[in-house]
Design brief:
The complex is a heterodimer of chains A (313) and B (223).
Chain A: H1 6-12, E1 17-22, H2 30-40, E2 46-49, H3 61-70, E3 75-80, H4 86-98, E4 103-107, H5 128-141, E5 157-162, H6 169-182, E6 186-191, H7 195-207, E7 215-220, H8 226-235, H9 243-251, H10 255-272, E8 278-281, H11 290-296
Parallel strand pairs in A: 1-2, 1-8, 2-3, 3-4, 4-5, 5-6, 6-7, 7-8
Chain B: E1 2-6, H1 9-16, E2 21-27, H2 30-33, H3 39-55, E3 61-67, H4 73-77, H5 80-85, E4 88-91, H6 95-104, E5 109-112, E6 114-124, E7 127-132, H7 148-151, E8 164-165, E9 168-169, H8 179-189
Parallel strand pairs in B: 2-3, 2-4, 4-5
Antiparallel strand pairs in B: 1-6, 6-7, 8-9
Classes of the chains: A alpha/beta (313), B alpha/beta (223).
Chain lengths: 313, 223
């Protein structure tokens, strides 16, 4: 075990893993995090805490992760390269590890123009692939990027993202391979609606044997309304929503129920695709629906390998 | 070339305030080529300022001049007489030219009439695009002659982020090409796609702008 995390243990056991996103609040409201952690806790292997997603200021993912751990739920913290340079990032990694964090997802970060501080200066001192390498260096070589030794290194299960729907498609596979070569242990994909394109990407991934070298968690998002589907289809780059799904949402009597049904159908299809090792549910501001999804696709109850990991410092 | 753009007239009017005798100094180098601060633009701005002053019920006396290159002392010295005769100078050069006049004539007030934008090239008539970030350690050999530092919205060195769709950058799909799509296409054409599998290590920004003003010293040219 590289990190001793529950997520790592589930994936190593060959069981189909389940993680879910937990978006920290745009406030200092601890109860907000506690409530969502309680809802998710028994239904997933780890909760993924976003790092100021879409460049909107929120409670820090590391602070929220500690609150989540106190509820007995294992966190995956996200670290983006947008807001911090290599010094701040490594400092955060050491601090997070000291607080008990064992899983870190390395992301480039959404551009600041999409958030609530478009006048901010971005950092991008290192990119997400270099960040994966930095974490691996800290963990395995026990030193920081600058070369100094770390006496107590962070034990981290290293994650990275992949977007099969962005362009150029061939480069998406090259980029995945680079992330694996840099040291990624698990991969979370962008949310999947377009199974056809995803399958195309997966077969390219399998042709290169990359699915044998990393744990791929397929990303899914339950859609709440037709407007949400339309917004994602038209305004969010790198998300592909097929016409058929848009039509179903438009004509639905109960859009939430229909969105949930679509999500379940997608998961069932994904479970049939070889090379996928788990599921990452991004229920945006709809965390309460996660338990139902997990139950309906037959992934409940969750296995527990490391009873002590949550809450342990 | 250095590409610049004239500031809004109102901002310029606020800068010059109650000034009644103004010297406008353009530059015949980069900013003349990008149609921001050459002879024509100096004359145009002088007229606009006079009209604006007239609307305020005031008058202003404006002298118009253009240096050959406002970033070198010998060319600025050619107009020393006129500079000394004025208290307020409005420079239509890039930020380098503005600062050189300020440095050479301590007692003079020098205002910038342009916003200096970037190093770039003309893309089409009346449109310029940033192409070089002046990072001090040119890596174009590794990226098919297309710079990801200057041209990717996130300066990524290991490939495109998830916001690249149909060759466009999500930051502004109508106006920004994804630098990594361009790099990919070019490397493919050159038969060098294998180069893109190499992990680019964290870049040293020491040669970039983070350590105070950078200097270039050419020993054999020094006296």
């Amino acid at each position: 075990m590289k990190s001793g995390s529950n997520l790592e243990a589930v994936l190593n056991s060959g069981k189909f893993a389940v993680t879910a996103e937990l978006g920290p609040p745009k406030s200092a409201n601890k109860e907000f995090v506690i409530k969502r952690a309680q809802i998710l806790k028994d239904h997933i292997d780890a909760a993924n805490l976003t790092d100021n997603q879409t460049a909107i200021v929120r409670m820090s993912s590391i602070a929220a992760s500690r609150i989540v751990m106190d509820q007995g739920l294992e966190p995956v913290i996200q670290i983006t390269c947008r807001d911090r340079n290599r010094i701040a990032i490594q400092s955060d990694v050491l601090g997070a590890a000291a607080l008990g964090v064992k899983n870190i997802l390395c992301l480039t970060g959404d551009h600041q123009c999409f958030g609530n501080h478009p006048d901010a200066k971005n950092v991008f001192d290192i990119d997400s692939i270099q960040l994966v390498g930095v974490l691996k260096m800290m963990r395995d070589e026990q030193k920081v990027l600058g070369g100094d030794a770390i006496k107590t290194p962070p034990q981290i299960f290293i994650g990275a993202a992949a977007n099969p729907f962005a362009d150029p498609l061939e480069f998406r596979v090259i980029r995945l391979e680079k992330k694996i070569n840099a040291g990624a242990d698990f991969i979370q994909t962008q949310c999947i609606f377009d199974i056809k394109r995803f399958s195309q990407w997966m077969s390219m991934v399998k042709d290169k044997g990359l699915d044998k070298r990393v744990h791929i968690l397929a990303g899914v998002t339950p859609i709440k309304s037709y407007n949400m589907a339309k917004h994602m289809a038209e305004n969010v780059s790198g998300i592909s929503v097929p016409q058929e799904i848009l039509k179903r949402m438009e004509g639905a009597k109960d859009p939430k129920e229909e969105g949930l049904n679509i999500c379940i159908e997608i998961i069932e299809e994904l479970k049939q695709i070889k090379g996928i090792h788990g599921l990452h549910i991004m229920a945006i501001q709809w965390e309460e629906v996660v338990p139902e999804i997990v139950k309906r696709v037959g992934l409940f109850p969750r296995p527990k390998f490391n009873k002590r990991c949550a809450g342990e410092t | 070339m250095i590409v610049a753009d004239r500031k809004p007239l109102q901002e310029i009017m606020n800068m010059i305030g109650d000034c009644e005798r103004l010297l406008i100094v353009g530059c015949n180098a980069c900013v003349a080529i990008c149609m921001a601060g050459g002879e024509k633009e100096v004359s145009e701005l002088a007229s606009l300022i006079k009209i604006a002053k007239k609307k305020q019920g005031k008058t202003i006396e404006i002298t118009e001049l253009v240096t050959e290159r406002q970033c070198e002392e010998e060319f600025v010295k050619e107009i020393e007489k006129e500079i000394k005769e004025h208290d307020v100078i409005l420079s239509m050069a890039c930020g380098v030219g503005v600062q050189l006049i300020a440095k050479m004539y301590e007692g003079k007030i020098v205002y910038p009439a342009l916003n200096t934008k970037f190093m770039g090239l003309p893309e089409e008539q009346g449109q310029w695009v940033e192409t070089c970030a002046g990072c001090g350690d040119c890596r174009l050999a590794d990226f098919g002659g297309i710079c990801p530092i200057a041209r990717c919205s996130k300066s990524l060195l290991n490939g495109p982020c998830g916001g690249s769709v149909d060759g466009k950058c999500e930051v502004d799909p109508d106006n920004i090409e994804c630098a990594w799509q361009l790099i990919y296409d070019r490397m493919k054409l050159l038969g060098q796609l294998d180069k893109l599998l190499k992990i680019e290590p964290a870049k040293s920004w020491k040669t970039s702008r983070d350590g105070g003003p950078r200097k270039v010293i050419k020993e054999d040219a020094r006296l």
